[in-house]
Amino acid sequence: MAMTDGLQADKALLETALVQKDQTALEALLGKRRSADVAELLETFIDDDDDEATALALLETLSFERGGNVFSYLQDETQQRLADGMADKWLVKLLEEMGSDERADFFNLVGEDRREALLRRMARHEREEVLHLASYQEGTAGALMTADYVAIPAGLSVSQAMMRARQTAPDAETVYQIYILDGDGRLIGTLSLRQLMVARPGAAVDDLMIRDVIHTRVDAEQEDVAKLVARYDLLAVPVVDDSDRLVGIVTHDDALDVVEAEATEDIHKGMSIGQLETGVSRVPLLKLYRKRIVWLVLLVFGNLFSGAGIAFFEDTIAAQVALVFFLPLLIGSGGNAGAQAATLTVRGMATGDVGVRDWGKLMGRELLVAGALGLTMALAVAPIGVVRGGEAVALVVAISMITIVLFGSLLGMCLPFLLDRLGWDPATASAPLVTTVIDACGVVIYFSIASHLLGLG
Amino acid sequence: MAMTDGLQADKALLETALVQKDQTALEALLGKRRSADVAELLETFIDDDDDEATALALLETLSFERGGNVFSYLQDETQQRLADGMADKWLVKLLEEMGSDERADFFNLVGEDRREALLRRMARHEREEVLHLASYQEGTAGALMTADYVAIPAGLSVSQAMMRARQTAPDAETVYQIYILDGDGRLIGTLSLRQLMVARPGAAVDDLMIRDVIHTRVDAEQEDVAKLVARYDLLAVPVVDDSDRLVGIVTHDDALDVVEAEATEDIHKGMSIGQLETGVSRVPLLKLYRKRIVWLVLLVFGNLFSGAGIAFFEDTIAAQVALVFFLPLLIGSGGNAGAQAATLTVRGMATGDVGVRDWGKLMGRELLVAGALGLTMALAVAPIGVVRGGEAVALVVAISMITIVLFGSLLGMCLPFLLDRLGWDPATASAPLVTTVIDACGVVIYFSIASHLLGLG
């Protein structure tokens, strides 16, 4: 993982302080450090040095509260590795200090037996809570949410609500958004702490609260939850179950992580790489292989169409071998332009900038832009065509360039729409897929034009 | 833009209500609607119907406060178009209700003359503030930040601080993080509202506050500011100037927008598309052309190397034309694998998962994975080689496949590191660039192996 020189120096000092059991030095090195940074330190001991012992020793010097906080910042694999070396008693103490969402995430990492052992040691409330939160499918609002929110019943005054907020403050993930529930636990309103602060202490919360609460459901896709947070600049989104009962909240920091993770997944999808779920430097080699090979092999077979096209025009090629000189250039250029068009469309769909209704308008725009691109590229390649093969060949290459770039761009732009229409993920229109299709079509277009204009084959 | 059927129906009702000046209907349709949603409505009137008049009429029905809020949710182009149709007096009233960051962003959209006219109508404090905030380069913390934060001097008690927070609450972007400044306005500490709430009213803020405040500078890249917010799960990051004076804060919602915008930029960069700054459905056609053509033309010339390679091996091709059948397949496959490797590396660097030091480790991992990928793909293509050209050709194609995929993957993985070493943006190692390089190398590798093993040319 990315590491700075300062970190390297600190590692050495910490190892010394640990060995010498120097509490003062440890306090000086770790005391003021933020949990995210301490977690990073532990990661480097594991990633770079394979040194779980030192990482565990460091974790042990921290209070349970701090240790739990640090533990929650660790990567999944690091949590698993360290947990393997921790006694149940200690691990449970740390887990109890973690946010309920992070605790549940960890539970989904450990095996059955360990889970049982840990649950047995937990207080009943926490045990039920973790089993509940851990039951949701990964990638949904349920899996993201925390149960540490502030909820009050209807009918309270502003000052009563403030008191509740103050009481719950130490345990809540966020105390800045308060949720009002009815007798059945259903979400009926929300109020921000800011609104509470500026209101008259005697005013009724029910009069001030927002009743049409922006919310999501436990089975909502995490991507959509993040979009909600982004659209309305929310601090947190409440999550309800099928009965509209409030069961958790997803906070802005988790939404931020989701946006980045989803972007990474989209970037990988754009290269026909399957979901890795872990950083590229840490994902197991076999998994990395499996997530890349599927489409690579499919596209090998896809590329046979290019070959078939070439076989069909073998006589044309034999008659004017100089034509082959321009083949990679033409299909490569078409592929580049097409991949650009596909990427713009897929990303536009992902950010909500482009919708299914926009197909016609985008088609028209792409027609114009791709025409201009093709023309420019044809003008760029024409002189080389003259030098390499003469005027006739130059004409063939120029016309082919315009045609292939136009065709490729329009195909690249339309493919995501078509896939969406068929009920598939538009992002399947990846750069490798689009370029493979354009390669095959480009071969046919080029040699057809050549045969026709040069009277070959 | 993406639009729902519900929106379509509402548009019709709104148009009717406006024409009939039906206040009750307007209140029913707009009253409970969130500002982000009203803004979306205005956008559709402009994007779909080119109907500024209705959009302006709608905006006029709102209070200044609501109108300013809605205006701040509009896209840049929409703000400009509407502002063109608004009297200075009205526009300034709306601007005064916007957050200071959004007000400054708008000022950077209008021409000199309009700016002067608007500034003349503004209160002195706001005028200075907007000139200050608008002076920062786009893409920096200064351009992102808002001046609407809560700051208190050192030496206050908890209850005094709470009172200040309560007083500033209506105007502050966020009241949940309080900043403590010294006599010169320098940032010396921070405290969350939560911490204030649970503290003893008589306690000294200076004793409770965090002194080592995570902060950023006015000229920091927005990408780095967002990373800070993500890493430490911050609600807001304070921004200081060269003298460490607090000048603004960047809130979590702006960080979220930055993460998405930066991801879009990275996705476009991965296809050699320059920064569009606007959605693909709205960016001016000429700009879309300019941002795509640069690399497309450069790569046309880059593709000439493939052509040169083919020219060099013209005799080999002439002797065994069946070889050309496999050319697109081999260089296409190598390009796909290489583009995958480059994308994984570039994204890894962008998310901080991969650092310069990791080159050796990643090289080793890629060697193994690419070897496996190449072998699998060679086995997939070998039977077709036998059918198409006989055993000798199949062997040539299989060996070429392994070699090209290995070479391409390692090249794709290394290129971002090399570019970074040269001080360039690693993301320049885009899919089109990588595939173009691999095309050229692939041609040479394939025909060299063919010449050698088949004794040709």
Keywords:
mainly alpha, Tetracycline Repressor, domain 2, 3-stranded mixed beta sheet, MgtE N-terminal fold, homodimer, 3 domains, 24 helices, about 65% helix, about 450 residues, 6 strands, CBS-domain
Written description of the protein model:
The structure is a homodimer of 457-residue chains. Chain A has 457 residues and is mainly alpha-helical. Chain A folds into three domains: 5-135, MgtE N-terminal domain-like (MgtE N-terminal fold); 150-260, CBS-domain (Roll); 285-454, SLC41 divalent cation transporters, integral membrane domain (Tetracycline Repressor, domain 2), CATH 1.10.357.20. Helix content of chain A is 67%, strand content 6%. Chain A contains 24 helices and six strands. Chain A has helices spanning 5-19, 23-30, 35-47, 52-61, 64-73, 76-84, 88-97, 100-107, 112-120, 124-134, 141-144, 158-168, 193-198, 205-208, 222-232, 252-269, 285-302, 304-312, 314-319, 322-325, 327-350, 359-389, 391-421, 431-454; strands at residues 150-153, 177-181, 187-192, 216-217, 236-240, 246-251. A three-stranded mixed β-sheet of chain A has the order 1-2-3. In chain A, strand 4 (216-217), helix 15 (222-232) and strand 5 form a beta-alpha-beta unit. In chain A, helix 1 runs antiparallel to helix 2 and helix 3 packs across helix 5 (64-73). The longest helix of chain A is centred in the C-terminal third of the chain and has 31 residues, at 359-389. The interface between A and B is large, with 114 and 114 residues.
